[in-house]
Design a protein that fits this description.
Layout: H1 2-35, E1 40-44, E2 50-53, H2 55-70, H3 75-89, H4 116-119, H5 122-133, H6 144-152, H7 164-174, E3 182-185, H8 210-221, E4 234-238, H9 244-256, H10 258-261, E5 263-268, E6 271-274, E7 283-284, E8 294-299
Antiparallel strand pairs: 1-2, 1-3, 4-8, 5-6, 5-8, 6-7
Length: 300
């Protein structure tokens, strides 16, 4: 009888031990799965198409759209610029290229596009592209590849056409017409400084710097909308009822730049994106009657 009890205790101990091991293996598997899930941003077009970029690419796409907004340019200009940058650099702020070509648009210092440091600034590079684009007669009515080629003078003039659909989806979403149609899943890690350029990250000194975020928004997105006085760990923008697309364009820009801006959450029109629950996308939140029409960014 005693032998059977000892055997039973040993069996229970083995079962418990196996259960503990299995639980540990399951826990580690889940942790490993989450730790290896890449950060990414996904845009959902109105026709059901999706475009997935990593946060670095998405931040550059958002900057291109923001610079167009600051200049009052149409969505077609954004599409042309995005198709060009996708072809030239895959939306990477490159330090190399053919001959002395560098940056998002592979612009060449030797051809008068600016100094290497200037061209490596995504805001400057985007502005220079648009400077040239608006000089192309009736560029809005031209095929994307024709308009892009008249700016770039590429050895492969037909190459831009293959990126038109992707660029059009991104332009449609980043200009805010589709509301919360883009979301980013982020781990909170800072982007590699070698590819950060002189864009959003350069104007923000530290977490909680609401004034720095407002200055960065002005530099990329322009003077409208105007931020309310920053209150340390947050910054807010009043958005007029007829300017919802502008509000969403800015909201999506903030999400694309969330890591370098240290944005903990972005809230607009009853929807909230949170860096700590970014895998849930834009969730519904109870609107604050006192902040109707306000885009709020919490920093952390």
């Amino acid at each position: 009888m005693a032998a059977r009890r000892r055997g039973s205790r040993k069996a229970r101990a083995v079962v418990i031990g196996v259960s503990v091991v299995l639980a540990l293996v399951s826990y580690l598997a889940v942790r490993l799965m989450h730790s290896t899930t890449p950060d990414e941003c996904t845009a959902h077009g109105p026709d059901g198409t999706t475009v997935t970029l990593d946060p670095d690419q998405a931040s550059h796409a958002a900057t291109i759209a923001a610079v167009a907004h600051a200049r009052g340019l149409p969505e077609r200009a954004v599409t042309i610029a995005l198709a060009t940058a996708i072809q030239e650099s895959k939306l990477r702020n490159l330090t190399y290229g053919d001959r002395d070509s560098i940056g998002l648009f592979q612009q060449r210092p030797s051809q008068g596009w600016g100094s290497p440091a200037q061209i490596r600034d995504p805001v400057y590079a985007s502005g220079r592209f648009f400077d040239a684009l608006v000089k192309v007669p009736d560029y809005v009515a031209l095929p994307v590849t024709v308009a892009a080629q008249r700016v770039q003078h590429s050895g492969y003039p037909e190459a831009y056409a293959q990126h038109e659909d992707m660029a059009a989806t991104l332009a449609d979403v980043l200009t805010g017409r589709e509301g919360p149609a883009l979301s980013c899943t982020v781990s909170g890690a800072d982007p590699a400084p070698s590819d950060a350029g002189s864009g959003a990250a350069g104007a923000v000194s530290e977490a909680g710097d609401g004034g720095g975020v407002a200055a960065t928004v002005r530099r990329e997105f322009g003077d409208a909308p105007v931020a309310l006085p920053a209150s340390g760990g947050s910054v807010s923008y009043p958005i007029a009822a007829d300017q919802a697309s502008t509000g969403w364009s800015l909201a999506l820009w903030l999400v694309c730049h969330a890591t370098e801006l240290h944005a903990a959450s972005v809230t607009f029109e009853g929807r909230r994106w949170s860096s700590t629950a970014s895998d849930r996308g834009w969730t519904h939140t109870a609107p604050d009657p006192g902040r109707t029409g306000t885009l709020a960014v919490a920093l952390g």
